[in-house]
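Worked example 3 (structure in, sequence out).
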């Protein structure tokens, strides 16, 4: 025998009404930022990451590269007469094997667009290796 036929979701809405009186109301909070989604472009010529970080100042941003792991972080603390608020984000992106990690560069536009770019490594084409003829090796030297 199942209790599912006796379940009535209308009764849960009454609980929400009672709990509303006991929970503090959150006001003056910024909504979660959805504009920090990373735009990643991976072409034959380059790899790039683009972020809208217009809510952060340049000194509130950090970009680190550890091997192929690219870390992008932003942290902001705002103190006013009415209180304190904090915003932060963190993105970690593993760069593909064919990216030249020594050439990773970043730029920040005036309108807050952060761009991180790296060229792709030039692939070494396969080639034939010629065999040179050498004089016989004296066995007594070994």
């Amino acid at each position: 025998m199942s209790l599912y036929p006796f379940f009535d979701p209308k009764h849960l809405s009454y609980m929400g009404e009672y709990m509303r009186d006991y929970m503090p109301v959150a006001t003056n909070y910024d909504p979660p930022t959805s504009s920090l989604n990373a735009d990643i472009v991976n072409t034959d010529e380059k790899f790039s990451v683009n972020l809208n970080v217009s809510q952060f100042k340049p000194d509130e941003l950090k970009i680190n590269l550890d091997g192929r792991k690219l870390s992008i972080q932003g942290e902001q603390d705002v103190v006013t007469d009415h209180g304190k608020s904090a915003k932060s984000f963190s993105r970690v992106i593993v760069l593909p094997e064919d990216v030249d990690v020594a050439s990773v560069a970043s730029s920040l536009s005036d309108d807050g667009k952060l761009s991180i770019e790296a060229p792709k490594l030039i692939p070494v084409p396969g080639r034939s290796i010629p065999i040179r003829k050498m004089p016989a090796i004296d066995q007594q030297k070994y």
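Notes: The longest strand covers residues 69-80. The chain has one helix and seven strands.
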